[in-house]
Amino acid sequence: MNKKIKIGILSFAHMHGYSYAECLSKLENIEISAIYDDNVNRGKKISKKFNAIYYNDYKKLLKTDISAVVICSENTKHKQLTIAAAKEGKHILCEKPIATTKKDAVDMIETCEKYKVKLMTAFPCRFSTISKRVKQILDENKIGEILAIKGTNHGTMPGNWFIDKKLSGGGAVIDHTVHVADLIRWMIKKEFKNVYAEIDNLYYPELKIDDCGILIIELENGIFASIDPSWSRPNKSFPFWGDVTMRIIGTKGIIDMDLFNQKIVVYNNQQVKTNWSYYGDNIDMEMIRNFIDCIVNNKEVPVSGIDGLKALEVALAAYKSAKLKKLVNISEI
Amino acid sequence: MLKVGVIGAGFIGNCHAQAWQNVNNAKLLKIADIEELKAKKVAQQYNIEYTSNPEDLINDKNLDIVDVCLPTDLHQEFVIKGAKAKKHIFCEKPLARTIEDGKKMIDICRENKVKFMVGHVLRFFPEYSLIKQQIDAGIVGKPGIIRVSRLNVFPVSETGKNWYGNFERSGGVIFDMAIHDLDYLRWCFGEPERIFAKGLGFTEKYQQGIDYALIVIRFKSKIIVHLEASWAEPPQNGFNQEIEISGSKGLIHYNMKEISPLIVSLKQTSSQSAGVNIPESPLKQNPYSLELQEFINSIIENREPTPTPDDSLKTLQLALNILESVKKGEIINL
User: How many helices (H) and strands (E) does chain A have?
Assistant: First the structure.
């Protein structure tokens, strides 16, 4: 029997960590052997659940015989944890956004290259059966030349450290832009050129952080795209967490994609609000499976650190554009 | 009873001819089109007079109102002629292709003391006016992001003389589609402050029969609007309109395609080659009748109509600013 591959999880600050841990625990050849969290209570509780050893010092965790780590800390802590893990020779799956500044992201990428470890950015939307189908249709040139794209990643306001700029690097725009930006770049294989954005704090003025915005992006070949990353779904009444949608306009046709629109509508007297219950494929599971496959079979990761950086640059350019009220070239970031 | 003549028997002329049948205190008596057959067809349907000479209609002493349903670049000529003949003027949107034309039309209507209204019909769609009522009542709290879409196939006029296909004449999706939403948005949210837009109007794609635009407008009231206007839809997509208002307390969403109070589905028969589904959303007075009713009421009550001519001029200015942003690739500060 093959020896199990040991994985460590660094922080559960980001709620996606729970989902990734669930996915890992379902894989036969995987053992979540170590968990670090600077929130002791949270770390101990989850360690117990997944039968892992809890560490309050990530440096000690990184000295153990784990092969890889999954990093789900607050955004600004990604760099420190990634670089420490790389130096100990551990492969890394890092939650998005890869970092909160270009410099941090570049440092992370270079360090991982230097220590020859894999760095994968967690963009689970690429692993959706629906988005893969869209990419296939585009690769088959079914809708002709791509002219424009309209994208959204709406959500509810997540609260917690997401609204503390020191930990998150920004609000809705950095949180949500990166998913759609990455899907666009991956699907149509073109790089971003410049960004215009209107960004504001209109839904929750007490938060003093951006909760809404619209980006218009120009890509190579004059293709233009819009992204709406707003936390615009009303927290108490909206029936779902949000959406990831793309409308792709081609010379020969149009693709309308609504990534999580595999749902049933549920009315329940105890819950009062209507609920959309999702029955589609588990995109986190597909992503985790891919990451593990790359480690086991020493393959190149399907979503690199560079991919994470390219998506981050769009969000950073958006903030700069909104501040200066100017069109911002990606090269200026 | 106010007596009405319609100039233009194309898509919107047919639409108005039908709508006039349902307007109180008004009666459609005549239709004009330089293509006589088109005018005749409408005339027979509603049992009215027809002429191939618009001047005949304009100078018809029996008529009180001229309803101009012509291509955008012809609005100016016929509105001015009608006003000088002392007719009240209803004109299909957009007001004109240039601000100069628009101002001149408004001035001449004023000088001749005739009422003038431009057909920004979206204000008269009950779903859109209900949305405004709910926003005004505070249902969504303070509005943040507004998303609107207006989608259709690239229009082709049945005679093949396709003025829509001439960007200089029609102004493409921004002038023909987005203009509806621009008027509605100004009605709901006041005046814009900053614009950035991307579109295909000035590219060779337009010549190939595709237009598409994505527009961002920051209003003085801080709200941010995302506007999609498309003439890029495949035929089976057909027309659609959609709006989403999100605010500090809630969200309102309307998508025409999700609304289907009545669908008639017919099986294939010998006279009908394929089975078809025809969706309908019947109302006692459709939005076109309602806008024409507002015009009639403004004449009877001797007041300005809603939208006022100045509203239509401001909406035209906004559309021109958007076009400028698309053309220059620049942010337009107003």
Answer: 10, 15
